[in-house]
Amino acid sequence: MSSIVITIFHAAQMAVSAYGLYVSYISITNLQQHEEKSEKAAEYLETAAYQLHKTRTTQASGAAAILASFVTALTLTTNPSLSSLTCSLSNIAMAGGALAARIHIGNFWQGKSRVPFVGGYNEGMRRTETMRQLLGLLAISWAVTGVLRLALK
């Protein structure tokens, strides 16, 4: 019974992660539409270079954390021979990684204003916020599965 509950949680994590990867892809492609202009500005302005760097790193950290969440949930679901310690450490690492990525994204993107007449960029910002919310959900779900693994032992 306990393994079924945990498997259901991991299946949900895979579903949320798959959706998160889709959202991340949309966000990145929308933001890349304006990257050429940003690169030109970055040649002359240090602030523009910093903003471009942070845009890229926040998108990459979100996508990487979501991908890691998907792969880990899949691995824990399909490989029942993993040790209890490995499973527990995986839950802790995934909760921490998702939370760290969420904070990293929030520190840069929160408070950013929408840009008038630049729909793709604004859509990228909106999708980035969705990705940040999904990372919060994943962090909570990894913490819950970690507690469940300990409680149902």
Describe this structure in words.
- With 153 residues, the protein is mainly α.
- 87% of the residues lie in helices and 0% in strands.
- The protein contains 5 helices and no strands.
- The chain has helices at residues 2-32, 35-44, 46-78, 84-109, 119-151.
- Helix 1 (2-32) runs antiparallel to helix 3 (46-78), helix 1 packs antiparallel against helix 5 and helix 3 runs antiparallel to helix 4 (84-109).
- The protein is elongated.
- The N and C termini lie close together (11 Å).
The share of residues in helices is: over 70%
Low-confidence stretches: none
Number of helices: 5
Shape: elongated
Structure classification: mainly alpha
Largest sheet: none
The arrangement of helices and strands along the chain is HHHHH
Mean pLDDT: 86
Strand content: under 5%
Global Rg: 18 Å
- Strands, count: 0
Beginning-to-end CA distance, first to last residue: 11 Å
In brief, what are we looking at here?
The protein has 153 residues and is mainly α.
Defining key terms:
elongated; mainly alpha; single chain; 153 residues; 5 helices
Present the secondary structure layout.
Blueprint: H1 2-32, H2 35-44, H3 46-78, H4 84-109, H5 119-151
Helix pairs in contact: 1-3, 1-5, 2-3, 3-4, 3-5, 4-5
